[in-house]
Specification:
By secondary structure, the chain is α/β, with parallel strands linked by helices. Helices cover 42% and strands 15% of the residues. The strands form 3 sheets. The protein has a 7-stranded parallel beta sheet, with helices on both faces. It has a 6-stranded parallel beta sheet with strand order 12-11-10-13-14-15. Strands 6-7 form a two-stranded antiparallel sheet. Helix 10 (228-236) links the parallel strand 8 (222-225) and strand 9. The radius of gyration is 23 Å and the shape is globular. It starts with 8 loop residues before the first strand and ends in a 6-residue tail after the last helix.
């Protein structure tokens, strides 16, 4: 008699923004490969949603679309404009907006028999609290697998110049007096974490994070941290120790394989791009365009195009090196093909597969720096937008600065001063284990955590 196969447990992975997709997609593949779980990726609206949708289809990963994405796909009949108008009306009333979102996500969880929700972050602006709340109302757990941990000051800088967060607004002042944890004073400015209507709605619905100015401080059941350094950082920022589970990230397993197969992969990469594989390699993660809104008044460049030209032309001048560019996940490659005129090559390979292959890494306050550290690669961290984050200031193999002159100096010294390069490579190797355990078992540890959460039906919940 043939035994019936055990039904696979469904796991919902929520992609709120393009930056989250690479990590969650890797987790989805891990879940599928295990044979025990059926991953379902929930795609929200962002510039590269349709690209990621096609990637799900190609790899036969199930996906669901947020209503905004569905509206985008129906734009030919005018449905999109009607939908956008209705959304704009509803979102002005945050309480109604959140109640409708919770109801929608609850229905999704029940209709698709979801047994665990996985988020790449718990950030107020991304409506992640909705998925946590809906999951708990349905009796299932939510786990965060963050690829980044931001300090309180990073959150402050993100809203500092936005008048919607100013306490000059009488309603913001009133709500701030009622709920003082949402208020922060910095450089003579008094700020409210989110506008007053959002604060009231989150408080009334029991969805307010315990530490509004710290990301991932909401009501998730567990936070899967990827390194000892991230766990220390989380504790320093006030997140509860009992929620922090040191698993590593699926990215670490890929990094480990990449380091072992460096030579053959590098040869294949250079062949595909028409490069001489005898040359050493500089990898740069080009920062996305952040010259909009209220956030970048101190930047030394007037336009994004001006910054890109300086950034890439400087690297292209290092003639003895191959220079390849990894674009931000939120960027559409067709919009950036022009940059190859500066003498660099764009690759569509995932950055996690590229970091093990490079000699040194050039970027701007990116979360990917932690992966370069874990691989022992020296990093040029050019804070071009002057975020002034402190995340990597104490890492000995990361050169952090915000001046154009130092960008030229440090890239040239790493490229041509052998002693300087060897010094910073050795410094990076001295602390690499604190930033990632490349034992190849991070995926297994994540699956163990997921299984325990589903088995306990929310035992981590506080």
């Amino acid at each position: 008699m043939r035994l019936k196969s055990k039904k696979k447990q469904k796991v919902l992975l929520v992609v709120n923004t393009g930056s989250y997709f690479p990590l969650l997609f890797r987790i989805a593949r891990l879940l599928k490969k295990s044979g025990k779980y059926e991953p379902v990726i929930y795609l929200m609206a962002y510039p590269t949603t349709l690209v990621h949708l096609r990637e799900c289809e190609t790899n036969e990963i199930a996906y669901l679309l947020d209503n905004t994405v569905k509206a985008m796909l129906r734009k030919a009949n005018g449905y999109l404009k009607v939908y956008q108008y209705l959304v704009s009306v509803i979102t002005k009333n945050q309480l109604i907006h959140l109640l409708l979102r919770i109801r929608s996500v609850k229905s999704l969880i029940k209709d698709h028999n979801i047994e665990l929700v996985v988020l790449a972050g718990d950030i107020i602006g991304h409506d992640t609290a909705v998925f946590i709340k809906a999951g708990h109302l349905c009796g299932i757990s939510t786990v965060i697998t963050p690829f980044v941990m931001g300090s309180k000051l990073e959150t402050v800088y993100s809203v500092m110049h936005n008048p919607d967060h100013s306490m000059d607004n009488w309603l913001n002042r009133f709500v701030g007096a009622l709920f003082p944890k949402w208020v922060y004073e910095h450089e003579g400015r008094s700020l409210l974490r989110v506008p007053a209507g959002r604060v009231i709605a989150l408080e009334l619905l029991g969805m307010a994070p315990k530490l509004p100015w710290i990301i991932h401080s909401g009501h998730s059941d567990a936070i899967a941290v990827e390194s000892e350094e991230m766990r220390r950082y989380c504790r320093q920022e006030g997140l509860p120790a009992e929620k922090l589970v040191l698993t590593g990230t699926v990215a670490h397993d890929d990094l480990a394989v990449g380091l072992k197969e460096k030579e053959i992969r590098l040869e294949a990469l250079c062949f595909s791009l028409g490069l001489n594989n005898a040359k050493p390699l500089i990898l740069t993660a080009l920062p996305p365009n952040m010259m909009y809104g209220y956030w970048r008044p101190d930047c030394d460049f007037d336009t994004y195009e001006e910054m890109v030209k300086f950034w890439l032309a400087t690297l292209a001048n290092l003639k003895e090196y191959n220079v390849i560019v990894s674009l931000h996940p939120s960027v559409i490659i067709d919009d950036m093909e022009y940059i190859e005129k500066y003498g660099v090559k764009i690759t569509q390979e995932k950055i996690i597969d590229l970091i093990p292959l490079c000699d040194f890494f050039v970027t701007a306050v990116s979360s990917t720096i932690q992966w370069a550290i874990a691989c022992g690669k020296p990093v040029v961290n050019y804070d071009v937008y002057k975020y002034r984050y402190a995340d990597y200031l104490k890492v000995p193999g990361v050169l952090t600065f915000e001046e154009k002159e130092k960008y030229i100096e440090y890239t040239n010294r790493l490229a041509y001063d052998k002693a300087f390069f060897q010094l910073y490579a050795a410094k990076q190797r001295s602390c690499m284990k604190e930033w990632g355990n490349l034992d190849g078992r991070a995926g297994a540890r994540l699956l163990e955590l997921f299984a325990s959460l589903m088995a306990s039906n929310g035992a981590f919940r506080k």
